Amino acid sequence: MTTLSIYLAGEIHSDWRDQLRNALADRGVDAEFLGPQENHDRSDDIGELILGEQPDDRYRDLMGASVNTLRTRVHMGMADVVVACFTEKYRQWNTASDAGAAVASGVPLILVRPRDFIHALKELDAQADLTVETLDQAAQAIAYIVE
Questions:
Q1: pLDDT surpasses 70 at 134
Q2: How confident is the model at residue 1 (pLDDT cuts 50, 70, 90)?
Q3: Which domain holds residue 35?
Q4: d(C-alpha 29, C-alpha 107), whole Å
Q5: Do the domain assignments include residue 115?
Q6: What is the pLDDT of residues 10-61, one digit of tens each?
Q7: 4, 25, 47, 52: least surrounded by Cβ within 10 Å?
Q8: How far apart are CA 130 and CA 145, in angstroms?
Q9: Torsion from C-alpha of 35, 36, 42, 47, nearest 10 degrees
């Protein structure tokens, strides 16, 4: 069986990553998981921690985003596949950005989105390698890759 590197793009506030990791483990999929910094405070603070105090919130956010974007580009470049998960509760700008980056860089994309998001995500849906509605469906597709 092949070990896959999977970039998990999506909001960091819910447990969807753990759900997918468990579903893959249940199917015996050997995977390395990459993704954004899941510690929200660390993600917000990293720009100032590396580059020093910024003059205001705009630059604080911009410097944090620069460091986080570096992390994303490196991790995504190491990934065999990207799973971009859109959930019901949280705003998803970063997820959309990561999904677009995956498409632009040629990394295969599995888009996970609820049925209610069909219209809102139709352009990403058209560009994804596979679109599913549940994490279990994503796990099944990934398990099939290494079957």
A1: yes
A2: low
A3: 4-39+79-146
A4: 19
A5: yes
A6: 899 899 999 999 999 999 999 999 999 999 999 999 999 999 999 999 999 9
A7: 52
A8: 12
A9: 130
Q: Which two tokens stand for residue 2?
A: 């092949």
Domain tally, the chain: 1
Q: CA 8 to CA 84: how far, in whole Å?
A: 6
Q: Residue 106 carries which DSSP code?
A: T
For the stretch 103-129, what's the b/e string if a residue is b when 16 or more beta carbons lie within 10 angstroms of its beta carbon? beeebebbbbbeeebeeebeebbeebe
The answer to whether residue 68 is domain-embedded is no
Asked whether the beta carbons of 110 and 81 are under 8 A apart, the reply is yes
Does 50 map to a domain?
Answer: no
Q: Tell me the CATH number at 14.
A: 3.40.50.450
Q: Residues 129, 102: contact at Cβ < 8 Å?
A: no
How many alpha carbons fall within 13 Å on the CB side of residue 48? Answer: 13
Reference 106, options 72, 129, 83; nearest CA is 129
Asked if residue 59 belongs to a domain, the reply is no
